[in-house]
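Morning!

As promised:
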Amino acid sequence: MSGATFDIAASDTTLEGKAPAGPLAEKWSKHKFDLKLVNPANKRRYRVIVVGSGLAGAAAASSLAELGYNVDCFCFQDSPRRAHSIAAQGGINAAKNYQNDGDSIYRLFYDTIKGGDFRAREANVHRLAECSVDIIDHCTALGVPFAREYGGQLANRSFGGAQVSRTFYARGQTGQQLLLGAYSSLSRMIEAGRVKMHARTEMLDVVLVSGHAKGIVTRDLVSGEIKSWAADAVVLATGGYGNVFYLSTNAQGCNVTATYRAYKRGAAFANPCFTQIHPTCIPVHGDQQSKLTLMSESLRNDGRIWVPKAKSETRAPGQIPEADRDYYLERRYPSFGNLVPRDIASRAAKAVCDEGRGVGPGGLGVYLDFAKAISEKGKRDIEGKYGNLFDMYAKITAEDPYTTPMRIYPAVHYTMGGLWVDYNLMSNVPGLFVLGEANFSDHGANRLGASALMQGLSDGYFVIPYTIGGYLAGEKPGKATIEDAAFGDVVATVKSRTHKLLSIQGRKSPRQFHKALGQIMWERCGMARNAAGLVKAVDDIRALRAEFWENVKVLGEGNSINTSLEMAGRVADFLEFGEMMCIDAWHRNESCGGHFREEFQTEEGEAKRDDDTFAYVAAWMYRGDGKVPSLAKETLAFENVKLSQRSYK
Amino acid sequence: MSSQKSMNLTLQVWRQKSKRDAGGFTTYQAKGISPDQSFLEMLDVVNEELIAKGEDPIAFDHDCREGICGMCSLYINGAPHGGFPGTTTCQLHMRHFKDGDEITIEPWRAKPFPVLKDLIVDRTSFDRLVQAGGYVSVNTGGAPDANAVPIPKKEADLAMDAASCIGCGACVAACPNASAMLFVSAKISQLRHLPQGEAERKKRALNMLTRADKEGFGACRNHFECEAACPKDIPRRVMAEAYRDFIEASALREE
C-alpha cells in the first residue's frame, strides 16, 4: 500500500497573490489608493450577488449596498440572521491595546502568522490586523453590546496562542451579537430597497460568461424552482466544509457545495487539508449523534486541563489527589500552559487518550477543571464569565460543571482551506470574490481563537468594499443577462443532477452515506494522518461515491420542500471534495498546524515543517470527474517574519 | 451521562403537504431512543425509518443544534420547545421523557407564521419587523473609537440581556393573541440601553410596533406567556420599556 501514489500534474495556471510592493505596514493604505474607483453615481448601475449571510456575507452585502451598489443576497436558512457565524462563542481579536499590555498591530500580525504555522500570506494577515481595530469601533457604533468593565470601558480576555489580552466578547455569545449587528445593517439596506434578500434559496452553481463570474443558479427550497441570477460580480461567503467529517461543531446545513461548484467551474481550491480540530468540545455520546457542541476556548482562561497519571484510574475526578493528576499542558508548555493554540492542545489530548489515560466512556475525554478558579475567584465570578456555557454543558451531559470537572474531547470545528484568492479576495476566476471561512487566505495551517469573527468582518466590512471597485471599474455594467446561453447550460446541468438524485431510488438514505464518509475522513484525515491511510481513504471514498450514485434513496419530488434532496446534493459534493482533501493531505509531506502527518514529527511529537519544500499554498484545479486534480502553487514569501519552529514552551 | 435504558415512544406529528393543503396528525413509533439523544436526533431516527419504508420524512426546521440560531421551532406537548426552562428544542434531551410516553408535535401556530410544510413555518414576518427599525443607522467606516463613550457595565448588561433573543418565535407561538411584543421589545430594549441607539429610540419603537400590527401580530394583553416560553429568558421588563418609547413617540408624533 505504501508504494501507491497519486499522479499529480502541475497546473499551467499561475496564481499571483498580487500583494502590493512596499513596506508591510504601508501596503494596504497604498493599495487602497491605487485601486480604481467606481464613481458614486455609477455604482447604482452595478449589481452584485452575495451568497451567504454570515459575518462576511451580511457585512459585505450591507456595506456594498451602503456604497450604492444593487445587491442580491442569498441564504439557505429561513432568515439571514441564522447563519452559523451566530454560534461563535468566545470572542473577536483586535489590536486595540486597551490593556496596555504590549499589544500592537504588528504583534497581532505576528501571532496570527506564527499561529498559522507560517503558511499564510504576510500582506493579507497584516491587513487583517490593521482592520481589526476598525471592526470593534464599527460594531460598537452598531449597538453590539460588548462586555464592559465597571468604569464603562470595553473588557478583554485572553485566548490561545497570545500572551496579551486582546479578545473582545459579549458573554459567550460574541458571534451572535456580531452577526445580529451585521444583520441589522443588512435589514436597514433591505428596507431601503438596496438589498434584495433571498432566504431559503440555495446556490447550486456559478455561471461564467466569457471567463468571468456573472451569475449563479439557485434552487428555491420552498417551491423547488431552479432559477438564474445575473450580476456584474459574484461574492461567495458560504463558510467552511467541516461537515465533510459528518460530526463537527458546524450547523447541520453547512456545506461545501457553493465553493466546490465554483471549483468545478475553474476556481482553484487551496489547502483543503488544513482543517481545525478544536480541543474543547463535549465528547461523543452515541451513534445517533448528529453534531458536536463546542465549549468555548475562553474556558481555558480559568479551566485547567488534566488526566489521571495512571492508566488504570477508576476513582471519580474529585477523589483523585493532586499528586495523581497530570496537568499535561502546563507540564509540557509551561509558558503558555492551558492557552496553547488549538492544534497543539488537540494533539496533546489525543496523545494522552492514545496512552490509555483518557476519561469517560471509551476513554475519549480529558478533564477541564474549574475547581481552582472557583475556590480562588468565587463561583459568582466564574458564573458571570461562563454561565451560559456551563448551563449548555449541564443540559447536554446532565452533569454539573461547577462541582465536577467538564469532560471534553477535540472535534472538527473550522476549515482554514478554501477557495484560493488574491490580495483583493478575488479568485482566479475574474469577478468571483470569496470571503470569510470560504476562502483560504489568512489563517495558514491553523487558526487562532477569536480570529474567525475578525476575518469574516474584516473581509466584509473593510476589504471587499474597496477591492470590488477595482474590478468593477474595468467592467461595463450589465454585461451579462440571464438570456445568455451560459445560464441555460448551467440550469440544464443543475436540473439533470436534481432529476438524477430523485430517480436512483436505491436503498440507503443520504445520511447513511454522509455518516460513512465522515468515518473515513475522521479516521484517516483527522487529527493524525499518514500516507498509507490517506491512499486507503481515497479508495474507500471512491467506492462509497460509486455506491451513492447507484444506491441513494431520495424520496419525494423536486418541486416542493424536500429536505432529503437538499441533503443528498450536499453529500454528493462532499463525496467528491473529501477525495481532494485526502490527496492534498497525502501530497503535503510535512506536518504543519492542523495538518499532522505522523511520518513528520519532532522527537517530542511536535509538528515538523519542511519550509524548503512546502512553503507554498497548494491550489488544486479541476480536471474532470474522477481525475486527480492538477496542482498550482503560490510560493509564500516571508519578508518580515523569520520562519522558526513554533514553540509554546 | 444518563443511566436510563433506551425507550420507545409514540409520536403524534402534524403532517401538512404545503401551505395550501389541509394538515392532520399522523402517529409514529420512535423505537430504541437513547436518553442522551436530543429531541431532533430522535426525529432523525424516525425519519431514517420512514425513508427506509419509502415514506416521506417529517420536515422540520433546524440548523445549529446548539440553541443559538433560533431555527428550530417545535410545539411539543402543548408548549413551544417543550416548555423546559431556558431550552430550545435542539437542546431538549430525551432523558426528560420516559419509556412509553406519547408526545404531540406541532408547528408554531400563528397567522403571521404560515405553515410551509409539516412542522416548518414561514417566519419572514420577524425579519420585516427588524427591517422597520431594529438597527442603528450607521454606515460602515468612520465610527469613533469604541472606548470614546463609556457605557456603564450595568447598562451594557441590560442591553445584553435583551440582545440574547434568538428570534425563534416561541413568544408568538405561546401568546393567545400571537403578539410579537416580546420579540420587538427585546430589540428596542437592547438599543435603548446603549448611547448609540438613543438618536432613533422613539422612531424605532413607533415603526417597529406599527409594523407588527401591519404584519398581523396580535396585541399584547399582558398574559406573559411569552416570558415563560422564551428559551433565552428575555424578561418582561423589555416590553414596559418599549411601551414607554412608543407612547412618548406617539404623543410627540408630528402629523
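Residues 278-413 of chain A form a domain with the Flavocytochrome C3; Chain A, domain 1 fold (CATH 3.90.700.10).

Hope this helps with the figure draft.
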